[in-house]
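testing teh design pipeline on a random one, pls ignore if ur not involved
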């Protein structure tokens, strides 16, 4: 872990990454790709130590309230957040200035900040996004070794439901030959239905591979799934999109069960929901 003073914190779309790199160890992580130009080891977390100050400066200068996003590239609830608490400090600033937040993680550490997320949701809007990939707990520990299991994340989703905080699940990635089964998708959907999630985002039953994350993923296949790497190479070569042969069947299952249970599975609608701050909150902010 090393500390830097960043020049800015919010993107043009009002997204922020407080950290760069990750310690969750997920075998499929796209953020390891060389195109993201990491100049340090991926597990050597870059900490933007001045993130709260930069965020406060940015929010003070904004003329209109909006949703602030975080977690798209690097999880805001990695192990270092337990002591650094930069995510919490940023949430405190978002809450103080009356902005909304759309926060993405695959860690139940987010429950530590339930008080702030509830407050933000009362004043503006909070959307919690949780990544779920693998229903089988033992398989989950192989694919995502240093983070809580899917069952624990599903339990967190229920806590947010109980506190009227809307949730969206990222059902991604699905790894061909590993977790691209009907049983896996059914299990995750059961969790989503029980937690009454607002929406599910899936770009298809598959994954992406490019230089950087491909090599890391293949090394994990050699370790945990002997012989599977050769099948990938034969079937996909150096393709970026690696789709499951069961894509159509599993996507039909996803859409069917979402429609039956009132869950949004249209990707554009999910993103609209996360980015939209209702007018009523703009009106409330005037008083």
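output:
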């Amino acid at each position: 872990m090393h500390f830097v003073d960043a020049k800015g914190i919010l993107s043009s779309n009002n997204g922020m990454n407080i950290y760069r790199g990750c310690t969750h160890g997920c075998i499929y992580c796209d953020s390891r790709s060389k195109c993201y130009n990491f100049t340090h080891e991926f597990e050597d977390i870059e900490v933007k130590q001045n993130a709260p100050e930069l965020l406060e400066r940015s929010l003070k200068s904004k003329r209109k309230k909006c949703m602030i996003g975080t977690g798209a590239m690097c999880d805001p609830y990695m192990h270092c957040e337990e002591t650094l608490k930069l995510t919490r400090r940023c949430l405190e600033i978002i809450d103080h200035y009356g902005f909304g937040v759309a926060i993405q993680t695959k860690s139940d550490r987010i429950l530590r900040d339930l008080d702030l997320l509830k407050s933000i949701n009362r004043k503006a809007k909070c959307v919690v996004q949780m990544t779920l990939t693998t229903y089988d707990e033992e398989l989950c520990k192989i694919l995502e070794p240093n983070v809580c299991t899917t069952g624990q994340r599903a339990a967190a989703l229920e806590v947010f439901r109980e506190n009227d905080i809307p949730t969206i699940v990222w059902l991604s990635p699905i790894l061909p030959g590993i977790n691209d089964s009907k049983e896996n998708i059914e299990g995750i959907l059961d969790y989503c239905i029980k937690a009454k999630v607002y929406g599910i985002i899936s770009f298809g039953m598959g994954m992406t591979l490019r230089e950087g994350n491909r090599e890391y993923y293949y090394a994990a296949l050699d370790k945990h799934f002997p012989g599977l790497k050769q099948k990938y190479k034969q079937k996909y070569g150096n393709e970026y999109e690696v789709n499951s042969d069961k894509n159509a069947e599993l996507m039909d299952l996803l859409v069917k069960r979402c429609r039956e249970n009132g869950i949004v599975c249209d990707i554009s609608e999910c993103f609209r929901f996360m980015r939209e701050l209702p007018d009523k909150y703009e009106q409330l902010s005037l008083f």
